[in-house]
Write a structure and sequence with these properties.
single chain; 36% helix; binds S-adenosylmethionine; globular; two-stranded antiparallel sheet; 272 residues; alpha/beta
C-alpha cells in the first residue's frame, strides 16, 4: 500500500484547480488584448457614395474630359521643358517592385517611364475611360517592349482597381475632369495600401502666368477641401514646379503624419 502510494501522482486540490483556471483565463485575456494592440490597425473605409454626374463640386465647376483627338499634345516634345516633368517624376520616388497606377493615363506619357522604373517585379495599372487612349498607349508600350502594364478601361465613377494593392497612384491633369469625384476618390482610397499615396499634379489656378484654361486648373485650397472631405490627408508636397501643384495624399487612417500646405502666395514668391 505504502509503496503504491509513493508512485501514484497526487490529485490537484480544489484550490489548485481554481488557481489554474484563473491563470488560463488571465493568459487568454492578455493574448486577446495584445493581439488587438499589435495587429495591423483595421482599415476604416467610409460607405461607398451614391453619386450622380455633377457639373460642380464644392464650389468648383468641373471640366470636360480631354478628347483622344488631342492626344498628340500630351506627348509634345517641349512638355518636359514647360512642366519640368522629369523633376516631378523624381519626386514620385518610385522603386523596383512597386505596384503603381497611372489614373487617367491618356496615351501614356507617364505610364511608360513608370513601368521602366518599377521594373519586371513591379506593375503599372494604366486606367482611362477612353479606349482610344488605351490603344495608343498599347502601341507605344509594344514599340518599347514594355510588358508590366495592365490596361484598365475605367468607368466615369470607378477606376476598377484592386483593393489594398497600390503603393502610388498618379493623377496628372486628370482629377479636375472627374464627373463623379466622390465615387472616384472612394475607389482610389480603397485601392491604396496602408502607406500608399496619391500623387496629384494639377495646374495652379492661383497663378495667372500658367497658360491653361481656367477650368483645367485647381487651387491648393480647393484641392485640400475636396481631399480632406473624402478621407485623405496631405503628407508631402513639392512646390518648385513651373506650372503645377504636386501634392501627395495618404488615407486619413494611414500611419504617415499629416502636414499643413505651404500657402501658394509664398510658393509663387519663392519661385520668382
Ligand atoms: C488631360 S488628359 C491627361 C493624360 C495624362 N495623365 C498625361 O498627363 O499625359 C486626361 C485623361 O484623363 C482621362 N479621364 C477623365 N476622366 C476619367 C476617369 N473618371 N477615369 C479615368 N480616366 C479619366 C481622359 O480620358 C484623358 O485621357
Amino acid at each position: 500500500m505504502h509503496g503504491e502510494g509513493r508512485n501514484r501522482k497526487s490529485r490537484p486540490s480544489g484550490d489548485q484547480c481554481r488557481n489554474l483556471s484563473r491563470l488560463v483565463a488571465g493568459y487568454l485575456v492578455f493574448a486577446l488584448l495584445t493581439s488587438s494592440l499589435f495587429a495591423d490597425s483595421p482599415r476604416t473605409d467610409p460607405p461607398k457614395p451614391v453619386e450622380k454626374s455633377r457639373r460642380s463640386y464644392l464650389g468648383r465647376v468641373l471640366a470636360q474630359p480631354m478628347s483622344h483627338l488631342g492626344a498628340s499634345w500630351l506627348v509634345r516634345p517641349e512638355r518636359d521643358d514647360e512642366e519640368n516633368a522629369s523633376e516631378s517624376f523624381v519626386q514620385l520616388k518610385l522603386a523596383d517592385g512597386m505596384t503603381v497606377c497611372d489614373l487617367g493615363c491618356g496615351n501614356g506619357y507617364w505610364t511608360l517611364p513608370m513601368a521602366r522604373k518599377v521594373g519586371k517585379e513591379g506593375k503599372v495599372y494604366a486606367v482611362d475611360i477612353q479606349p482610344e487612349m488605351l490603344r495608343k498607349l498599347q502601341v507605344r508600350a509594344d514599340k518599347e517592349k514594355i510588358k508590366n502594364i495592365e490596361l484598365v478601361r475605367g468607368d466615369i465613377d470607378d477606376p476598377r482597381l484592386p483593393e489594398n494593392q497600390i503603393d502610388l497612384l498618379l493623377m496628372v491633369d486628370v482629377y479636375h475632369e472627374f464627373s463623379h469625384p466622390e465615387s472616384m476618390l472612394w475607389a482610389i482610397r480603397r485601392s491604396l495600401t496602408e502607406n500608399g499615396v496619391v500623387a496629384l499634379l494639377e495646374y495652379r489656378e492661383e497663378d495667372p502666368e500658367v497658360p491653361i484654361k481656367p477650368l483645367h486648373k485647381m487651387s491648393k485650397n480647393q484641392i485640400m477641401k475636396e481631399y480632406q472631405k473624402n478621407g485623405f490627408k496631405l503628407v508631402r508636397e513639392y512646390n518648385q514646379l513651373p506650372w503645377q501643384h504636386l501634392m501627395f495624399f495618404a488615407r486619413d487612417d494611414s500611419p504617415t503624419d499629416a502636414i499643413e500646405p505651404v500657402p501658394t502666395q509664398q510658393v509663387l514668391e519663392d519661385l520668382e
